[in-house]
Amino acid sequence: MAITNLTAENFDKEVLNSDKPVLIDFWANWCGPCRMLSPTVDEIAEEYDSVKVCKVNVDNEMQLASAFGVSSIPMLVVIKDKKVVAHTIGVQPKDKILSMLDLK
After folding, report:
1. Helix (H) or strand (E) run with residue 78 in it
2. What is the average pLDDT across 44-59?
3. Which helix (DSSP H) or strand (DSSP E) does residue 70 occupy?
4. Nearest Cα to 37, choosing from 6, 74, 70, 1?
5. The domain defined by 4-100 carries CATH number 3.30.565.10
6. Which of 3, 34, 91, 101 sits CB 3.0–4.6 Å from 74 for a disulfide?
7. How far is CA 97 from each of CA 1, 31, 62, rounded to the nearest angstrom?
8. Domain boundaries, the chain
9. Per-residue pLDDT reduced to its tens digit, 80-93
10. Where are the alpha helices (DSSP H) in 12-89?
11. Which of 6, 15, 24, 34 is labelled catalytic?
């Protein structure tokens, strides 16, 4: 499944109105750990149609980053039924991310 780039404008449509759990990756171009985590997030998007995967560039979407209290990146957030059910900061192994999504 394709990865959705989230903005303040499309957040409600893409996340709050999603009928699937949503994995959001908060990242930035200059962030080395973000670049390390990105291939894992991309794999999950390709392998699991049951999850919607979104990315937020914190430099471009400061309003969204602020709304989620992002203070360190990469930060992953899982939203189900319009509620944050899990989040983590830093590079995570794929197994941990799948556990956050209840896929493991």
Report:
1. strand 75-80
2. 96
3. none
4. 74
5. no
6. 34
7. 17, 19, 24
8. 4-100
9. 999 999 999 999 99
10. 32-47, 62-67
11. 34
Active site residue 54: no
Query: Taking the alpha carbons of 69, 29, 50, 63 in that order, is the dihedral positive or negative?
Result: positive
Are 98 and 53 a contacting pair, CB within 8 Å?
no
pTM recorded for the entire structure: 0.95
User: Of 31, 86, 89, 91, which is the active-site residue?
Assistant: 31
Residue 31, Cβ neighbours under 10 Å: how many? 17
What contacts 59, CB < 8 A, 6 or more positions away? 28, 29, 30
CB contact at 8 A, 23 and 97: yes
Point out which residues pair with 53 in neighbouring strands: 23
Looking only at the bridges linking them, the beta strands covering 75-80 and 83-89 are antiparallel
Cβ-count burial of 30 within 10 angstroms (0-12 exposed, 13-18 middle, 19+ buried)?
A: exposed
> Is 64's pLDDT higher than 90?
yes
Q: Which helix (H) or strand (E) holds 72?
A: none
